[in-house]
């Protein structure tokens, strides 16, 4: 049987909780609290000339500081917009002889982290701070755990953030309370998603939902998470991509579909990889990968402007320009430029020899496409800081992509590289069902060799293609990596509210 142990401060807070209850104060009231104003709006809009408009306000938030001046308290609360100061005077809060509310609640019951609501009027203190002259105060929720200690300047801005990753990622709720910059990151994340959604909706795209539980994990080369469906008594997989379902919708007659999908890949974790991540994919009938490059430039230029107010975005010590057009480089040219090797005519053994010469670790399960991918990832990827389309991949790397219209052995595919990482992957989609079956069969051979990331054969998808799919272009964006760029965050864990972590041992 587990037992809960408390720190000295936690014990004191629980004692205060009990005393509040004994004094008849409900520390967790159920009733609606009629908030009428928010901190930043008050501070931005209040003037002496329009003070009549702020003669009665109702605000609520979390206590972030308490300055006890005896019969006067200066309390700063934090709401969704920021901090605002409350001026709380004993004889105005308790104008009669009975001062028990002051003693029980304000003087001895409040702690940092508690939620309170107040009514009163707005004024400017002698020190020039816009504040609320409190007339009523209500305890809305008692905090039983002390907030982590951070340092703030006179304006209340944090200048000594808690940066311990174990704390930040595991206790994101506390991180959000004390680090305003973290909240700003996630506000920008939502702004980015809304910007993209606005772009697509205005172009006539249809937002859809596709299955997360799939009987075949298709649409990407990745190792899936496996589960079991008890009612059907069959194995299922968490999706690694939503591509094949979205293409089924193109077969069904929709011309442009998109989905922000949560995908899952049972692979390693580092600063740009999390097992659970967000992808935006969209598919458009009657288009090709050249059109998709131009559309990608337009979408990202708009997103940067909407989120950052500029197309020149600071990332670490660099400035990345999202202004169209972006550079285009073939993958073979990129490898030749950065390794000195022309791999365009090499077979699998030749590629293995190149990898050995470049000290790139490979194993026997890897086929030709995977070997080329390893060379590019190890020796080329990091060089592409400004947005660059790496185009025209070998057919072995792209089992879902249409063969190039004029370059034998290649396919019409691009990956968008920014700041040395892949941000998007796009094709002119393969819509020949016979050739698609052959490509799947080649992938099945790699599975037999032990490549856990090779694709399964999706017979239902092949059946859908046999009904006919129009010429189509599709793309997948790594939303988390794009957020990293536009918020200047070094790790994917910094742009995920609750990144995966090893389970915590709690007693």
TrEMBL record:
Keyword Transmembrane: no
Localization, UniProt: Cytoplasm
Entry-linked Gene3D superfamilies: Bira Bifunctional Protein, Domain 2, Nucleic acid-binding proteins
Pfam families to which the protein is assigned, alphabetical: tRNA-synt_2, tRNA_anti-codon
GO cellular component, one term: cytosol
Residue span(s) of domain Aminoacyl-transfer RNA synthetases class-II family profile: 189-503
Listed EC numbers: 6.1.1.6
Binding positions for Mg(2+) 2 per the UniProt entry: 422
GO BP of this protein: lysyl-tRNA aminoacylation
Coiled coil: none
Keywords: Aminoacyl-tRNA synthetase, ATP-binding, Cytoplasm, Ligase, Magnesium, Metal-binding, Nucleotide-binding, Protein biosynthesis
Catalysis: reaction(s): tRNA(Lys) + L-lysine + ATP = L-lysyl-tRNA(Lys) + AMP + diphosphate
CC cofactor: Mg(2+)
Molecular functions per Gene Ontology: ATP binding; lysine-tRNA ligase activity; magnesium ion binding; tRNA binding
SUPFAM superfamilies: Class II aaRS and biotin synthetases (SSF55681), Nucleic acid-binding proteins (SSF50249)
Subunit architecture: Homodimer.
Family per record: Belongs to the class-II aminoacyl-tRNA synthetase family.
Protein name per its UniProtKB record: Lysine--tRNA ligase
């Amino acid at each position: 049987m587990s037992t809960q142990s408390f720190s000295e401060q936690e014990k004191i807070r629980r004692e205060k909780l009990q005393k509040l209850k004994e004094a008849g104060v409900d520390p967790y009231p159920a009733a609606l609290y009629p908030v009428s104003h928010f901190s930043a709006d008050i501070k931005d809009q209040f003037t002496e000339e329009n003070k009549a408009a702020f003669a009665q306000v109702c605000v609520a938030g979390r206590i972030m500081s308490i300055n006890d001046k005896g019969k006067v308290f200066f309390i700063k609360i934090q709401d969704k917009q920021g901090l605002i100061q409350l001026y709380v005077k004993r004889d105005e809060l308790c104008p009669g002889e009975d001062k028990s509310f002051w003693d029980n609640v304000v003087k001895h019951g409040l702690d940092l982290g508690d939620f309170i609501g107040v009514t009163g009027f707005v004024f400017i203190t002698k020190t020039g701070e816009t504040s609320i002259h409190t007339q009523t105060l209500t305890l809305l929720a008692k905090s039983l755990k002390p907030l982590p200690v951070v340092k703030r300047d006179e304006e209340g801005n944090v200048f000594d953030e808690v940066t311990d990753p174990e704390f930040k990622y595991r206790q994101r709720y506390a991180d959000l309370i004390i680090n305003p910059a973290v909240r700003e990151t996630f506000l920008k994340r939502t702004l980015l998603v809304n910007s993209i959604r606005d772009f697509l909706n205005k172009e006539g795209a249809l937002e859809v939902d596709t299955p997360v539980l799939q009987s075949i994990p298709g649409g990407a080369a990745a190792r899936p998470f496996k589960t079991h469906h008890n009612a059907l008594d069959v194995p299922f997989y968490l999706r690694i991509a939503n591509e094949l379902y979205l293409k089924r919708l193109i077969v069904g007659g929709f011309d442009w579909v998109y989905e922000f999908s949560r995908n899952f890949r049972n692979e390693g974790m580092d600063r740009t990889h999390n097992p659970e991540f967000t992808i935006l994919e969209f598919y458009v009938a009657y288009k090709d990968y050249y059109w998709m490059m131009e559309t990608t430039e337009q979408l990202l230029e708009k997103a940067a402007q909407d989120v950052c107010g500029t197309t020149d975005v600071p990332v670490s010590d660099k400035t990345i320009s999202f202004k169209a057009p972006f550079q285009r480089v073939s993958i073979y040219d990129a490898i030749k430029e950065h390794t000195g090797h022309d791999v365009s005519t090499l077979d699998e053994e030749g590629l293995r020899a190149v990898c050995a010469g470049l000290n790139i670790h490979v194993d026997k399960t890897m086929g030709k496409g995977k070997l080329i991918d390893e060379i590019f990832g190890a020796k080329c990827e990091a060089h592409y800081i400004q947005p660059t389309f790496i185009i025209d991949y070998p057919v072995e790397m792209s089992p879902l992509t249409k063969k190039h219209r004029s370059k034998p052995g290649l396919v019409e595919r691009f990956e968008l590289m920014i700041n040395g990482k892949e941000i998007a992957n796009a094709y002119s989609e393969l819509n020949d069902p016979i050739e698609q079956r052959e490509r799947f069969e080649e992938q099945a051979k790699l599975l037999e060799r032990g490549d856990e990331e090779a694709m399964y054969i999706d017979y239902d998808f092949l059946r859908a293609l046999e009904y006919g799919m129009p010429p189509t272009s599709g793309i997948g964006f790594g939303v988390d990596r794009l957020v990293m760029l536009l918020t200047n965050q070094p790790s994917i864990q910094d742009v995920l509210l609750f990144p995966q972590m090893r389970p915590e041992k709690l007693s």
